Amino acid sequence: MAGTTVLNELVRQANGRTEFPQAVLDKAVTCLADFLSCAIEAADLPWSRQAFALAAGTPGRCVIIGESGGFAASDAAFANAVRGHGLVREDMHAGSIAHLGVVIWPVLVSLACANSGLTTSVLRAAVAGYEIGGRVGRALVTPEVARLFRPTGLVGPLAGTLAGAILLGLTEAQTVTALALAANTAGGLNEWPHSGADDMYFHPGFAARNALTALRLAQLGAHGSATAIEGVAGLFAGFGRGPLPYRPTLYPDGACEIMAVFNKEAPACNFAQSPCQVALAAARRLAPGDAIRSIHLSTYDAALNYPGCAHRGPFETPLQAKMSIYFGMAATLASGEIAESNYAMLSDPRIADLIGRTTITVADRLNAAFPARQGAVLRLETVGGAIIEEALDDVQPASPALVLERFLGAARGRLGPARASELGAAIARMRQDKADAPALAALAQLTSIPAEERAA
Hints:
Elements: H1 6-15, H2 22-41, H3 46-55, H4 73-85, E1 92-93, H5 101-114, H6 122-140, H7 143-148, H8 151-168, H9 172-184, H10 192-195, H11 199-219, H12 235-240, E2 261-262, H13 273-283, E3 292-299, H14 301-305, H15 318-323, H16 325-335, H17 349-356, E4 358-362, H18 364-369, E5 376-382, E6 387-392, H19 400-415, H20 417-433, H21 437-446, H22 451-455
Parallel strand pairs: 3-4
Antiparallel strand pairs: 1-2, 3-5, 5-6
């Protein structure tokens, strides 16, 4: 039985793929730069400081991005995952409605820092993590599941664990056990959008830390349930409330799930991305002195039904605003830009007025295209009588050039121009050298503030 379980099949498929096109490796490097950028920018946000405080006083060899000193692997992974998620601008896999990079990269950074002798390709390990998270997530995460449970918390532990297992070179049996144990840690409730609380920021931290624990237990000889995915009390029975709908396959026909991941332009919920983008295009067409009479957005079911996305206010925290499609569009129209600063304008009367003028409905065409495409259609009517229409068939991702620009800008701001220049060169080497583990460890060290500078 063990040789035919879903986990055994997935591990064999992951181990059987060792070469990838350059475009896939380049995408992995872009996702790494995006993660580091978000983590650096979010370093001083409250949830980042809270996660960092947990790590203080437990020394080790691992780096917490944007800090000085060394920390234990699990503490560093937790803190880095929280930081990577802190802006709500992390990479997104729409098919699973999950943020995979904020689990995968913290795991790989900690393992690379803690294990100096590793020679396995970091990028191959990362691609495998995105693959299992995306493929299992597509099968598991329905809109009904996502209303209750955080998809990142459900498939993130699998993604981080498989990436770590490949980097460590674990055997098939060890990897199956690690994945089975990781499946036991799947969780994360979607109550936070209703209450405006901070739970969400810590979900990838739990997933990354649990992935490292699962990997270590497997190395120590633990034995996990190989049927943890499809079993009568496995992952799908527990969260999907039914049997496995089909057996997920990694890299079918050579395709890689990481290529379906997009890097966000707006520091907000995935489902607010294309609405903010059509709102920005419309804002640029408004005549000087004209005012907006009404706003109508056409979207798809998953966007309106995800917790927090249809919230119209009041907004007590930036997170509530970042989840709300209504707020994202109104703030973009009011400010004329997509920016982090939009989400500080929680009580702006212009935004409240525009939300009051907004209606949102589901369009069959956009509904049928999801999750392959995340379109949006906006129609504005102005007091002056103008009709402004803007449409996107799909969300427009942040380009690799923009991701790199944001990364280097964040590094200059926190670490200084010299260190930012070194980081830019290190990212370029990762792309050229296919990123062995020592290269990732060296890159991570460059994100650390020297103790003497921190003291000053």
